[in-house]
Specification:
single chain; 198 residues; alpha/beta; Rossmann fold; 8-stranded mixed sheet; 6 helices; 8 strands; globular
Length: 198
């Protein structure tokens, strides 16, 4: 409803949407790449491709709620995501309040989503690096559930494990909802997004 196709990179970007993950075919379909799945869902909804290399990321621009938005998937490893995010923020002079970070959360079941206006890193290494390098925790964030770590699993192995077929279907549905939630946040309707999806 608020979405319009817009492909050219623009100097008037006012908002950034970042989907976190790890680049490389070996990480495709892993739990830690839930943010990438959401970024891809947004691009699919818009009919654009996240295929330009800039800010240590794959990026594209689009218009959401009459705002110019940079959509990005950092190409750094997850724990260095802040390098990409702060580079884009500094270039376009976008404040943290206008940068939506979408990432995986092991405290939520697959298929669940949680929206927050701001807050701590919650133990997530990508978010930790973004907060550290930017000096701010004022980022709106959309957290996608990837399932609780089984007791006998190492955390690193769990987040880098693949979703089952049924889980991936649930994640895809949640990623589509995350695209709708990001649209509402940019339109200034964060409360509505939280009421609908939390």
């Amino acid at each position: 409803m608020f979405f319009k196709k817009k492909e050219a990179l623009s100097s008037s970007v006012s908002h950034i949407i970042v989907g976190l993950g790890n680049s490389g075919t070996e990480y495709e379909g892993t739990r830690h790449n839930a943010g990438f799945a959401a970024a891809d869902a947004i691009a699919k909804k818009l009919g654009v491709r996240i295929d330009r290399i800039k800010f240590k990321s794959l990026v594209t621009t689009c218009t959401i709620a009459d705002k110019k938005v940079l959509l990005m998937k950092p190409s750094t490893y997850m724990n260095l995501s802040g390098q990409a995010v702060t580079e884009a923020m500094n270039f376009y002079k976008v404040p943290p309040e206008n940068v939506i970070i979408i990432f995986d959360d092991i405290s939520l079941d697959v298929g669940k989503m949680r929206i927050r206006r701001k807050g701590s890193d919650g133990g997530h290494n990508g978010m930790k690096n973004i907060i550290y390098l930017s000096g701010s925790d004022q980022f709106p964030r959309i957290k996608l559930g990837i399932g609780h770590k089984p007791e006998k699993w190492d955390l690193a192995n769990w987040v880098l494990s693949k979703f089952s077929e049924d889980e991936y279907k649930l994640l895809t549905e949640t990623a589509e909802k995350a695209a709708d939630a990001a649209e509402l946040i940019i339109a200034g309707q964060t409360d509505r997004a939280m009421n609908l999806y939390n």
